[in-house]
């Protein structure tokens, strides 16, 4: 009885590596040197002390945002806390019907503005002056 010889590749034949041992060693040395350089740079810049980002050391900037209720259009009024488009339109309608506001508390006469809303928007209201009274309302 004769057995047919398997024509598949011989497993005992040496495999060809993609990179030679010398190439692999060179790449390992380059990667190790690169990693060492990165770590040295991070330590030099204070990474281990959290010194890379200085955001917390920046001085806070106070932004003053004041709205003149006697001259503001509805888009500007909607920037106030708890004031949406509908309530801003009501403020303008009230101003057109009754003239300019003479006191900030007068805003509570607008339907939808109560004590809580008034306290939320009060820090953002520009002081009312005589000039705004005579210039608005029409």
Low-confidence stretches: 131-138
CATH architecture of the domain at 74-135: Orthogonal Bundle
Gap from first CA to last CA: 115 Å
Structural class: mainly alpha
Radius of gyration: 38 Å
What kind of sheet is the major sheet?
none
- What's the helix-strand series? HHHHH
Number of helices: 5
Helix percentage: 25-40%
What fraction strand? under 5%
Secondary structure tally: strands: 0
And the CATH topology of the domain at 74-135? DNA polymerase, domain 1
CATH superfamily of the domain at 74-135: Tex RuvX-like domain-like
> Which CATH top level class of the domain at 74-135 fits?
Mainly Alpha
Average pLDDT taken over every residue: 82
| Shape by Cα distribution | elongated
Describe this structure in words.
The chain contains five helices and no strands. The protein is mainly α. It has a domain of 62 residues: Tex RuvX-like domain-like (DNA polymerase, domain 1, Orthogonal Bundle).
Entry keywords:
138 residues, mainly alpha, DNA polymerase, domain 1, 5 helices, 40% helix, elongated, disordered C terminus
Give a short synopsis of this structure.
The chain has 138 residues and is mainly alpha-helical. It is 40% helix and 0% strand. The chain has 5 helices and no strands.
């Amino acid at each position: 009885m004769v057995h047919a010889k398997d024509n598949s590749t011989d497993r005992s034949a040496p495999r060809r590596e993609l990179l030679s041992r010398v190439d692999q060693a060179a790449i390992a040395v380059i990667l190790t040197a690169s990693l060492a350089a990165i770590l040295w740079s991070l330590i030099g810049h204070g990474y281990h002390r959290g010194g890379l980002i200085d955001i917390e050391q920046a001085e806070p900037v106070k932004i003053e945002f004041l709205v003149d209720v006697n001259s503001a259009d509805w888009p500007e009024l909607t920037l106030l806390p708890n004031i949406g488009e509908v309530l801003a339109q009501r403020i303008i309608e009230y101003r057109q019907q009754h003239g300019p506001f003479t006191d900030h508390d007068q805003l509570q006469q607008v339907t939808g503005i109560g004590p809580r809303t008034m306290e939320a928007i009060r820090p953002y209201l520009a002081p009312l002056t005589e000039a705004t009274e005579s210039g608005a309302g029409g």
